[in-house]
């Protein structure tokens, strides 16, 4: 009987130590940087410690300013500009630059806006070495007045 209690105690101790070690050194942080609207029910960005660098996985960015107000009602170019401003603010808050963006995933309501999207994008990215990308035309987004949403992934080298 004592052997069982001792094994049970040791097992509980190891589980507790492992759980505490995992939470204390978690390689992932979920952040909502200043300068962009604070979302309800999710984080704007997950930051993953990769040793010599960190990876940022951004939630889909929409054309809302830092107060949560729509920018550019019925104007695709203004909405795209605000989305890239939001991406830039989140990347900068983590110590990065837009050149650190390695992947963009676009969700747009109408592909007729693709030329405008590319023109806005090219003001923010390295056009000589553009990030990988995916573009999907969608029937709708979470609000009817939002014309596009963009997800981004960035990898930022840590300073020595």
Automatic annotation (TrEMBL):
Domain of life: Bacteria
Lineage: Bacteria, Pseudomonadati, Bacteroidota, Chitinophagia, Chitinophagales
MF GO annotations: deaminase activity
Signal peptide: 1-21
Family affiliation: Belongs to the RutC family.
Protein name as catalogued: Enamine deaminase RidA (YjgF/YER057c/UK114 family)
Alphabetized UniProt keyword annotations: Signal
GO cellular component, one term: cytosol
Keyword field contains Signal: yes
InterPro entries in UniProt: RutC-like_sf, YjgF/YER057c/UK114
């Amino acid at each position: 009987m004592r052997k069982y209690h001792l094994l049970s105690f040791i097992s509980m101790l190891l589980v507790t130590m492992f759980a505490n070690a995992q939470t204390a050194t978690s390689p992932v942080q979920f952040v909502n940087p200043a300068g962009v609207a604070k979302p309800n029910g999710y984080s704007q960005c997950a930051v993953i410690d990769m040793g010599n660098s960190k990876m940022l996985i951004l939630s889909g960015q929409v054309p809302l300013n830092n107060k949560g107000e729509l920018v550019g009602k019925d104007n695709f170019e203004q909405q795209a500009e605000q989305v890239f401003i939001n991406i830039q603010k989140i990347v900068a808050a983590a110590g990065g630059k837009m050149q650190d963006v390695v992947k963009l995933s676009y969700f747009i309501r109408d592909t007729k806006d693709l030329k405008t999207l590319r023109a806005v994008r090219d003001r923010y990215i390295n056009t000589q070495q553009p990030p990988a990308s995916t573009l999907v035309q969608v029937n709708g987004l979470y609000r009817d007045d939002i014309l596009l949403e963009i997800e981004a992934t960035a990898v930022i080298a840590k300073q020595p």
